[in-house]
Design brief:
Among the domains are: about 110 residues; about 80 residues, Arc Repressor Mutant, subunit A (Orthogonal Bundle), CATH 1.10.10.60. The chain is about 65% helix and about 0% strand. The protein is built from 14 helices and no strands. The protein binds a DNA duplex (14 and 14 nucleotides) through helix 13.
Length: about 350
DNA sequence: CACTATGATTTAGA
DNA sequence: TCTAAATCATAGTG
């Protein structure tokens, strides 16, 4: 504000108004240093009193006179220019910082997690529902944990957006306020539009740094959520006995071609209370492990062979035996050797 | 605690 | 996109 006073005094001086009229302190000092020292303190005091005695109307009138002065616009633009140069030389050229890589990373992550992007309304088709399933291949994982995860994510998303909105509103309010203030002041002191622009940029930068904190904490929340829910998926739990039984039954009764179709998988999944991808996993694991060590699975194979045979028998009690589920072994996987004691 | 069983994930190939 | 194969990581068991 020291600048302001200096400029104002300069302005008034150039504007042709007497400095004494305005009560410029410089002029007082001058008077003291030149000539008669404490010539007339009373005089000075009177001058000062005159200022304070000035009515508001008088002051307004003076201000108005200043504003209407024919030299004012030209003068202001010159002053603006000088100020611009000074400010630039003081502040250097550290403006126009590039987009912060930190904030870009946060933005990308929030986008990837579906927090900041467009509303993923559908959800059913897993448009972006399963973040971790990107490479996994289990698009329609609708387990309980998953819906829980999505609910929590939606909650975070909602909080994030409402906070963001609040910040943005506050920012624009504050910006407006400052802009109005500066515009108002630009009538009495040299403020170029460029300067206002710069001030707005500064405000925006401040607010965006606050926003970054919001983004950061949101990211943290999402990370915690992920580790709690998605990584918990990896914490496997064995299928229940009945489910394993159903799967094994299918496997051993289709030993020649243990590749259930999509429909069969769906049915098995429903029967076992697991997802289709879990069924796929199970068959993948089972096939490779069976193939690797047929001997080890001998007993199990016999058990299920007997089981299906019994079932078949039960069925054929009513129908003909023509279509027994015990598929003949036609090449895919070696069939177990049915020795009575379970050895090969 | 070591060891095995087992569900999930990753990688590579068709 | 499906599968084989390897691998990871935890659950269960003695």
């Amino acid at each position: 504000m020291d600048d302001q006073t200096r400029m104002m005094t300069g302005l008034t001086g150039l504007g042709g108004l007497s400095q004494a009229d305005v009560g410029d302190p410089d002029s007082v000092r001058k008077q003291q240093s030149l000539g008669q020292p404490q010539q007339d303190i009373g005089d000075i005091l009177q001058q000062i009193m005159a200022i304070t005695d000035e009515s508001l109307d008088e002051a307004q009138a003076r201000k108005h006179a200043l504003n209407c002065h024919r030299m004012k616009p030209a003068l202001f633009s010159v002053l603006c220019e000088i100020k611009e140069k000074t400010v630039l030389s003081i502040r250097g050229v550290q403006e126009e910082d590039p987009p912060d890589p930190q904030i870009m990373r946060l933005d990308n992550m929030l986008l990837a997690e579906g927090v900041s992007g467009p509303e993923k309304g559908g959800g059913s088709a897993a448009a972006g529902g399963a973040p971790a399933a990107a490479a996994g291949g289990s698009p329609t994982d609708s387990s309980i944990e998953h819906s829980d995860y999505r609910a929590k994510l939606a909650q975070i998303r909602q909080i994030y957006h409402s906070e963001l909105e609040k910040y943005e509103q506050a920012c624009s309010e504050f910006t407006n306020h400052v802009m109005n203030l500066l515009r108002e002041q630009s009538r009495t002191r040299p403020i170029s539009p460029k300067e206002i622009e710069r001030m707005v940029a500064i405000i925006h930068r401040k607010f965006s740094s606050i926003q970054m904190q919001l983004k950061q904490s949101t990211c943290e929340a999402v990370m915690i959520l992920r580790s709690r829910f998605l990584d918990a998926r990896r914490k496997r739990r064995n299928f229940n006995k009945q489910a394993t039984e159903v799967l094994n039954e299918y496997f051993y009764s289709h030993l020649s071609n243990p590749y259930p179709s999509e429909e069969a998988k769906e049915e098995l999944a429903k029967k076992c209370g697991i997802t289709v991808s879990q069924v796929s996993n199970w068959f993948g694991n089972k096939r490779i492990r069976y193939k690797k060590n047929i001997g080890k699975f001998q007993e199990e194979a016999n058990l299920y062979a007997v089981k299906t045979a019994v079932d078949a028998a039960n069925v054929s009690a009513q129908a003909s035996q023509a279509n027994s589920p015990a598929t003949p072994n036609s090449g895919g996987y070696p069939a177990p050797c049915y020795t009575p004691d379970g050895r090969l």
